[in-house]
Write the structure tokens for this entry.
Amino acid sequence: MSTIVNRASKGSPLTNNEVDTNFSNLNTDKAEKSNNLSDLASASTARSNLGVSSTAAALDEAIAMSIALG
């Protein structure tokens, strides 16, 4: 993971070069949708952080909602 320079830790405004480097690093390090979380260190942690249910949990939730709605 690349380092991102920010004003708070630097103590002064960022230079244009630092801003450009930050954008480049963010673009390089981003997760790709097409990789289906395989490019992350822990897909299960990512799913939990994103609040994504497993297929079984989603099915259980859908059934419970269907029963509740009658």
